[in-house]
Amino acid sequence: MAYMYGAAMLLAGLILIFSLSKENKIFYVAGGYFLLLGGWWIADALLPDLDLFAGGWGIAFKVLTAAVLVLLVVVFVKEFRKKGRDAAPKDPPKDDGEF
Question: What is the pTM of this model?
Fold first, then answer.
């Protein structure tokens, strides 16, 4: 089952990189993370005596995950706010008191 999780993460990473990166360059980072996650998961399945999600390796992986998450949230919030400003009307409609 761990191989299926790893393969799904690799597939998600490839989709993010090759399909969605045309919309925004941040999908390269997200796709790269998913490729790393898939490889990490498959390596954990292939090396059962070395638990990559615990100990020092697990801490390093969690720190990397947190850093990527913070970066993605910051970029997406900036993009969301930018799109909100662009969609807002420049001149609000004037109310002349009549219906």
Answer: 0.76
